[in-house]
Amino acid sequence: MARKHPKHGPYEDVADEEEAPVEVVPCWLCSRPTGKTIVWHHPVPKSRGGRDTVPMHPICQQAIITNFTNSELQRHGMNVEGLLDNPNVRKFVDWVARKDPDFTAPLTKKQR
Q1: How many Å from the N-terminal Cα to the C-terminal Cα in the chain?
Q2: For the chain, what are the domain ranges?
Q3: Engineering a disulfide at 103: which of 23, 95, 97, 99 sits with its beta carbon 3.0 to 4.6 angstroms away?
Q4: What domain of life does the native source organism fall in (predicted)?
Q5: How far is the C-alpha of 43 from the C-alpha of 100, rounded, in Å?
């Protein structure tokens, strides 16, 4: 008996619709558009009662983790300007501003 539909043929139920453009979300720290990888970061650490999340580049999140303790992050809260007052973070943001959104690089270890 002949098949009604070919086994390996074009998909009829898949329409040739254009995909909706993906909304580009700016990074919370550096304000550059995020790339393919978005990290949802807790500005106030969860261990300190933080519930809100913000979109960030992985390298920007690593810069924050490297330069601040959980207690310092709790004090700053959602205030990104307080984090940018730190000279190391300001220097990092100025440097990364010229990079591609998907740029990644190893950062120095936390100095305690």
Answers
A1: 76
A2: 39-97
A3: 99
A4: Bacteria
A5: 23
